[in-house]
Amino acid sequence: MLLKEKENGLHAIAMAMAMASAIQKEMTSGDTLTKSDRSPVTIADFAVQALVCNILHTNFPGIPIVGEEDSHVISKPENRDVFAKIAHYLQQFDAPLNKKWICDCVDLGGAEPDGTFWTLDPIDGTKGFLRGEQFVIALALISAGRVRLGILGCPNLPPDTGGTLFWAIQGRGSWQAPAAAVSQARPVWASRRTNPRQMKFVESYESSHSDKDTQLEISRRLQIANPPEQMDSQVKYGIVASGIADIYLRIPHPATPDYREKIWDHAAGSLIVEEAGGRVSDIDGKPLDFSTGKTLHRNRGILATNGLVHQRVLQVIQRGR
Ligand code: AMP
Ligand code: MG
Q1: Is the pLDDT of residue 262 over 80?
Q2: Pocket lined around ligand 1, Cβ cut-off 6 Å
Q3: Pocket test for ligand 1, best of 126, 206, 212 (most atoms within 8 A of CB)
Q4: Helices 43-59 & 82-89, crossing angle to 10 degrees?
Q5: In terms of DSSP bridges, do strands 201-203 and 186-187 run parallel, antiparallel, or are they unpaired?
Q6: Which pTM does this prediction carry?
């Protein structure tokens, strides 16, 4: 039951976490590039995608990989200096570590979603990564439009500990372990809290990624006493799955009302919350549909909760519109 996929996935993500943490500490300004959509991308995105895709492809050559990044940006002549830096972090591989090898490894993640495939976000929460805060490495296995296996590597949760791994296999529960000691796995469960005075509400740090004004209004109408807490990346799913927070809400920002979420931003996290006893839907209450390509075309926004309060939050969202 996906045990080999889980073992290899955990191994790859744990290695990638250590590498990404080292890069985060040693980053200089030249290590950040800009993608065609003007979003930032770093040498860590490419080094992690190369490392994880290499390991997955070696162990599962028949399973395609849908990664967030491709080698387009690093192939530009003005960015040629980044290869030496990326190679420096990939020295554990017995390979030539030249431009071609690195681009080929990154582009192993160039598949289109179809049938059974991996999806990888090498650095989810790049802006948090650049601020020295939360980010995750997110890997999921999707088959027939359903997430079967999800792994979140959270290097800065809690800070300065080597980080936490969360994972779930469909129908088999959710687990967490220190990244440095995967054998210390323990099950995680969403909270049982229903009293708004005790509940914690989490949302994106970046103001342009969700409608924080409306989210604040909804948390007030729910009478949640604590102010919403901001954090980057799918760490928010790990926090809800393990019962630290109760509600993660992501309403499309008014400036980008038609934004559709990317599969790699939600596949792993949503399974981990659901297998921990929580619930995940879009803001209309529809289940996330992972059968529509790289984006969640049929869904708008995200609501992840401990399950007990899900319906109540949906009602408040609906009443506000
Ligand atoms: P978070 O750290 O939770 O804000 O999520 C980071 C993710 O937000 C990135 O991986 C992007 O794919 C995604 N993102 C980028 N632009 C938007 C947008 N306008 N609305 C929602 N999500 C976005
Ligand atoms: Mg992302």
Answers
A1: yes
A2: 124-125, 204, 206, 208-209, 232-233, 253, 256, 259, 262, 265
A3: 206
A4: 50
A5: unpaired
A6: 0.98
